Amino acid sequence: MNNHLKGVLYVGVGAASYGILATFVKFANNNGSGTAGLAFAQYFVGVVVLSLLSFLFSKKNVAPTDKKQTRKNKLKLVAFGSFLGLTSSFYYLSIQYIPVSVGIILLMQTIWMGVVLEFFIKRHLVTQKKIIGAIAVIIGTLLAAKIFEVDAALNFKGLAFGLLAAICYTGTLYATSSIALELPLFTRSKYLIFGGLMVTMLFWNVQIINEFDWWVYLKWGAFLGFFGTILPPILFNKGIPVIGTGLGSIISALEIPISVMSAYFILQEEISSLQWLGILIILISVVYINLKPKAERS
Questions:
Q1: Coil, strand, or helix at residue 282?
Q2: Which of 4, 13, 109, 222 could link 166 by a cystine bridge, Cβ 3.0 to 4.6 Å?
Q3: What pLDDT digit, counting tens, does each position of 159-188 carry?
Q4: pTM score, two decimals?
Q5: Other Cβ atoms within 10 Å of 125 Cβ, number
Q6: Is 9 exposed, middle or buried (0-12, 13-18, 19+ CB in 10 A)?
Q7: Could you give the CA distance from residue 100 to residue 261 in angstroms, rounded to a whole number?
């Protein structure tokens, strides 16, 4: 297997890992586990495992650098890690009010939010291609979120939490692609997840204590921690540098159908024809925005 195919596989598995999270959180909710305890357990397990991996594999691989700058970058990672913790918290809150299949569509509004962020931070011109793609994503979202279905009971609190999760996820993606890239993989992931753990504790505070259950931590914490805070960052950091950001973005959009299908099979959520059409439009839009012209690829 060549390196390019390995990169595609890494990103695909990482996206699939993210895609199943919400379904299993909602499944755990339906079986009596509180969201606060699940979110805390996910990040706690992630910090413990990544700290161990960082200690074992990263400390000897760091080139001599300015210690003050390194400390500053680590603090930046912790700060931006708060976006990651808020993403999970808002996302898990949203699916308490709306179906997982709608929640993942709202989360992926980061597709066009990332274009806006890129313009304001990097001052990149917003091309006609990106504008068309962003508009198509919004149209697909309106279909996939059942806005046009008369019998759909929309919960605006769930929609609001879903959009807040998308905003925070946009900040998370910016951090993972731009902050402290010189640090080793496990070290970067550790500090990002640590920031996520801190904000999760602040966000849920006493609810974590009220919902404390060792069985939840052992069972769901290990599962959510592995598929939510350990495996995807490692796979994305291994795969995207090989295949490039554009193709990486296209493949990571697999998170949408994976999430929808897992909700269909595990939670028995009904997916309408209009929703599938909306999802298809969003996926095509991702390809359209990120796929470079043939002249640029050659």
A1: helix
A2: 109
A3: 999 999 999 988 887 777 677 777 888 888
A4: 0.84
A5: 8
A6: middle
A7: 10
pLDDT in tens, 123-147: 666 677 778 887 888 888 888 876 6
Name every residue whose Cβ is closer than 8 Å to that of residue 259 and which is 6 or more positions away in sequence.
19, 20, 22, 23, 100, 101, 104
- Dig out the tokens for 194 from the structure: 């640590």
How many C-beta atoms lie closer than 10 Å to residue 3's C-beta?
10
At residue 212, the 3 state secondary structure works out as: coil
Q: For residue 168, count other CB atoms closer than 10 A to its CB.
A: 23
CA distance 252 to 202: 30
Contacts 24+ apart (CB under 8 A), 23-29: 23/100, 23/259, 23/262, 23/263, 23/266, 23/267, 24/220, 24/223, 24/224, 24/262, 24/266, 25/92, 25/95, 25/224, 26/95, 26/96, 26/100, 26/263, 26/267, 27/266, 27/267, 28/216, 28/220, 29/96
**Could you give the CA distance from residue 28 to residue 30 in angstroms, rounded to a whole number?**
5
> Can you read off the two tokens belonging to residue 232?
């995807």
Q: What is the distance between the terminal CA atoms of the chain, rounded to a whole angstrom? A: 22
